[in-house]
Specification:
Blueprint lengths: L1 E6 L4 E7 L5 E8 L2 H9 L5 E6 L4 H9 L4 E7 L5 H4 L6 H13 L11 H34 L12 H9 L4 H33 L2 H6 L7 H11 L9 H6 L4 E3 L8 E4 L5 H17 L1 H11 L6 H22 L10
Parallel strand pairs: 1-4, 4-5
Antiparallel strand pairs: 1-2, 2-3, 6-7
Helix pairs in contact: 1-2, 5-7, 5-9, 9-11, 11-12, 11-13, 12-13
Length: 340
């Protein structure tokens, strides 16, 4: 078995090959993209195991290398856990390829999950909606600033960005510069609203084909956006040994520094997609209002202290994450336990 470490770039990549004794027998700079790297690996002849660092476009690269004759195993390394590479004073593509090959030879690669193409497309839709929503929020903030700059108070009893509110905004008398800015903002609001609707239609079509989304929506506070994002990023819940690992995967657990019997816990690790943590916290606030059992858990962490509400809602979000993982694992909907 040969062990290949690949430092991949779309135009130029570095390849390092180790033999069965762990000695470097070949180093090569490959000019070209995935096909050029695949041709180089196919020319090695014998069985090969390949490792590369996760990067943009990792999915097509993984699939192309897996299809090469003679390649027995393709591993994608988690870049945040490759301290051997980023924690060194001397770093270049040639050395990175050698270190990746050595980690593969020692079977010490911090492996990252490679979801199938349909799951990657689902994640892209989820992230696209998030980007559009953030863009819409920025446009709305700019509209609020325009009104404050013009000395106008927003209408009472109606949302500024409802149909009536937008009509009110369009009818206000403004100077030439402010009027131009208003016209551009109104057009941007209409465009981004339509774009969000298009993405949500695509998300609903994808979610309708996956029964797990409807199953997760039985959990208090969990809506369609939270459920579909959870399914897209978890992919297969069976790849986690226990439900507690899902909370760690989404960065909902504290940092730990324990030694000599002393336990030190810090802030959340915040690993994984930040969108999932945001949605879990929003679901936790909703669950406090709709579920007696979860509200009791929230109040138990609060201990009657209003200053602990943020801590309590994060703890409840972590609990919801584990509950959702258990629902997927067991294939059974949520049932409200009796509150104590």
């Amino acid at each position: 078995m040969l062990y290949a470490g690949l430092d991949y770039h779309p135009r130029t990549s570095d390849l390092c090959i180790l033999n069965e004794d762990g000695k470097a027998i070949k180093r090569r700079r490959v000019r070209g993209g995935r096909d050029a790297v695949a041709a180089e690996l196919a020319g090695l002849g014998g069985p090969v195991a390949v490792v590369f660092e996760a990067t943009g476009g990792y999915g097509p690269l993984h699939e192309r290398l897996s299809a090469v004759a003679g390649v027995r195993r393709v591993v994608m390394a988690h870049p945040a856990h490759l301290r051997l590479i980023w924690g060194t004073k001397r770093k270049n593509d040639r050395l990175d390829a050698l270190k990746l090959a050595k980690l593969l030879y020692l079977d010490a690669v911090p492996q990252a999950h490679v979801p199938p193409p349909e799951v990657r497309r689902w994640r892209r839709l989820v992230e696209l909606r998030r980007a559009l929503v953030r863009r819409r929020a920025a446009v709305k903030n700019q509209a609020h600033a325009l009104l404050r700059g013009a000395g106008l108070a927003e209408p009472r009893g109606v949302s500024l960005f409802s149909r009536a509110g937008l009509g009110w905004l369009a009818a206000q008398a403004l100077d030439d510069a402010s009027s131009l800015e208003r016209s551009l903002l109104l057009e941007q609001v209409r465009q981004v609203n339509e774009q969000v609707r298009q993405v949500e239609r695509a998300l609903r079509a994808t979610s309708a084909a996956d029964p797990r989304v409807a199953l997760l929506m039985t959990v208090p506070g969990v809506g369609p956006r939270t459920a579909e994002t959870f399914c897209a990023y978890v992919d297969r819940v069976e790849r986690f040994g226990r439900v507690g690992e899902v909370g760690s995967y989404f960065g909902m657990v504290p940092c730990q520094d324990s030694s000599a019997g002393r336990e030190r816990l810090g802030h959340l690790t915040k690993q994984g997609p930040p969108l999932m943590r945001q949605l879990l916290v929003e679901a936790a606030w909703s669950a406090v209002r709709t579920s007696a059992t979860l509200r009791e858990r929230f109040e138990r962490v609060c201990r009657g202290d209003p200053g602990r509400r943020k801590l309590a809602v994060v703890a409840l979000a972590h609990h919801l994450c584990e509950v959702m993982a258990a629902v997927l694992r067991d294939g059974r909907p949520w049932r409200e336990p009796h509150a104590r």
